[in-house]
Specification:
Elements (H helix, E strand, L loop, with lengths): L2 E8 L20 E9 L2 E10 L2 E6 L13 H10 L3 E3 L1 H10 L3 E4 L3 H6 L1 E2 L3 E2 L3 E3 L5 H12 L6 E3 L3 H8 L5 E5 L19 H11 L4 E5 L2 H7 L4 E2 L3
Helix pairs in contact: 1-6
Length: 233
């Protein structure tokens, strides 16, 4: 558990060095403080700066290196198209599930899955609630909390490990989330739109899975079409 260990006045305004998080809400005189957070033996600083334009919170906590899931959408989309990942609508997904032994991989949070999901779907959440208390995680929690969000999420580091424990590389998988996203270009979205299910599909093909489909329109359309679903609550 992290603890606040010091508050140090600082007469200068914050520099570009402290650039991880910024939010503006309050008007106060010019002043700033360094807040030192200690986790175990390690110590990090968060600079809280207030000036006449508003509140600025910036953290020196080091962000972890970018993961494959955080790759640019353009690069993800190119690989999905190269690997011929096919998008199907809800009715076609249901037919494939019934007639061709496809499995629906629901990557929504566990709580959403328990509320309602396609019959026979398997849940492996691609994002989870923030669990750790590193300096970086504390800064992220503070950022979410500042905007009234007390259940911030992070990438699930065990996602691929869980997938590999349940599916072999030749498994027929339809990846699904709430909205679905799309790889199809449009006037407003020339490169389509990223979603949790498309990020998951990208990770699967990146790790050698060969028969990956994507649920276009997401589980929203599955429920709207009144296709079979079940609940665990």
């Amino acid at each position: 558990m992290a603890a606040l260990t010091s508050v140090t006045p600082n007469s200068t305004s914050s520099s570009s060095l402290y650039s991880n998080f910024r939010a503006s809400q309050f008007t106060t005189p010019d002043c700033s403080w360094f807040l030192t957070l200690r986790t175990g033996q390690a110590s990090k600083q968060i600079l809280t700066s207030q000036n006449r334009r508003g509140l600025i919170i910036r953290s020196t906590a080091t962000k972890p290196a970018k993961s494959p899931a955080e790759e640019d959408w353009k690069i993800k989309r190119e690989l999905l198209l190269e690997k011929k990942v096919k998008s199907v609508d809800a009715k076609e997904a249901y037919r494939l599930q019934k007639e061709n032994n496809f499995v629906i991989l629901d990557v929504r949070p566990e709580a959403e899955f328990k509320e309602a999901h396609p019959v026979g779907a398997i849940n492996i959440q691609i994002y989870r609630l923030i669990k750790e208390w590193t300096a970086w995680d504390i800064a992220r929690r503070a950022a979410f909390a500042f905007f009234g969000i007390f259940s911030g999420t992070e990438e699930n580091p065990e996602f691929m490990q869980s997938v590999e424990s349940k599916f072999d590389k030749d498994a027929k998988i339809i990846v699904a989330c709430t909205s679905g996203g799309t790889m199809k270009p449009s006037q407003n979205l020339p490169e389509g739109q990223q979603s949790r299910s498309l990020i998951a599909a990208y990770l699967l093909v990146l790790n050698g899975y060969k028969n990956i489909y994507h649920l276009e329109g997401g589980l929203y359309t599955w429920f709207k079409e009144e296709l079979p679903f079940e609940s665990e609550e």
